């Protein structure tokens, strides 16, 4: 799915290595934090080169995703990791990893089918525009457009997934997309406020 590339295009300025002088971390946690930062930078470099059509290549990201999740869980209480920039970067890593796990797991068969069909809607679906937290739901026109096009232009994603994969796969994709975007939950099932 082109979703991974689209997410990746917005990734990382630079995480920066955490300081080993954190007051709330043990020495071991501080060293783990430095390793985490290095892994996150390596991850960002590799994910930006990912061929999303290559399932084998996508599968190689499962272990780094698990490693980074472990790293962050073990060091997020440390002073060096307790700032908004680092939190945002790791939230983005978690989003990318969640997407990789979804498209290589629950949605793998349907994604392959849509690729084989050369689905225009699926190919052109821009998850980033759906995942932006700065959508102004106070502006009625912007909110209406965001809601109506959340599942592809005029809801085309639903039609294509149901046509090629069935309603069960559509429900999986819909639920996944809704799970990664809190703002769109203000829309109703028909794409309206």
UniProtKB/TrEMBL annotation:
Keyword field contains Metal-binding: no
Protein name from the UniProt record: T20D4.11-like domain-containing protein
Domain T20D4.11-like, first and last residues per copy: 25-188
Keyword check for Signal: yes
Alphabetic keyword roster: Signal
InterPro entries, A to Z: T20D4.11-like_dom, UPF0376
Alphabetical list of Pfam families matching this protein: DUF19
Signal peptide: 1-16
